[in-house]
Amino acid sequence: MDIRVLRYFVVIAQEQNISRAATLLNVSQPALSRQIADLEDELGTKLFTRAHRHIQLTQEGHYLLERALQIIGLVDKTTYNLQKQDVVSGTLDIGAGESVGIMPVMEAAQQIMRQYPDVRVNLRSADAEPILADLDAGILEFGIIMGNRPLNNYNTLVLPAKNHWCAIMRADEPLAQQEKIRPIDLVGRPLITSRQAYKHGLFQKWSNTLYDQLNFVGTFNLAFNGSLLVKTGAAIALLYDQLVDVSPASGLVARPLSPDMSEANTLIWSKNRNLPNLNRLFLDTLQKNLAQQGGSDA
Hints:
Elements: H1 3-15, H2 18-25, H3 29-43, E1 48-50, E2 55-57, H4 59-83, E3 90-96, H5 103-115, E4 119-125, H6 128-137, E5 142-146, E6 154-158, E7 163-170, H7 183-186, E8 190-194, H8 195-199, H9 203-207, E9 215-220, H10 223-231, E10 236-240, E11 252-256, E12 262-263, E13 265-270, H11 277-297
Parallel strand pairs: 3-4, 3-5, 8-9, 8-10
Antiparallel strand pairs: 1-2, 5-13, 6-13, 7-10, 7-11, 7-12
Helix pairs in contact: 1-2, 1-4, 5-11
Protein name: LysR family transcriptional regulator
GO molecular function: DNA binding; DNA-binding transcription factor activity
Family: Belongs to the LysR transcriptional regulatory family.
């Protein structure tokens, strides 16, 4: 599969018109049509359905488009890094969940962006599974994983701040009068939590024998969206603290869980790839910052 033909395919998919794509690519329409026909023959499937004035992707075409964008991005990134080994430039690709505990990573990125104006940052918010998949594929250089999971295949750096779980509820909710929320307090109440936490049964150990009596009515991927549902009174949200606005004007309050539930934030990167200059500088900067903070805290 030729990367050049993949680039042709992406432009055609975006334009939904062979003629316009040929003009943009500075290629004759018959030659472009032939390239795509050869690609379909090579893959053994139709990528487009053709109408009078436009074309549309088939299901297989949509799948290839998603993969082609990843492949092209990886090729461009690799080429750029190889050509720019003597300068600090490029993009920091970092995947992470939501947590205020990743602030040291952002501070290190800010230092580099200020010193090297050509540097860009691509932050991807996601659960652990897609972050690990993109890290393995080379789409991301760094990931930040929350909680405990096997990370033997990666280099790791544990960030100092932990994530503490809390319950977010409306200020007029009766449970808001309590200083802390225990498992027994949540029995029979409608609850929502992160998709990852629910999938891995994170609250089983915390709630012990009461877990089967906890009524999870939904999940969220972004804490802000979950907080909007909480504002309606539909549910109480279990999430990391300091992720959503609980100021008096918000109408929401946060209460810590009892017993306490906390998880670490771990920065990871591949053991199997050498880091480009930019990523080595980022890692060095972060490690130096953490060492200095540790010394000042001592």
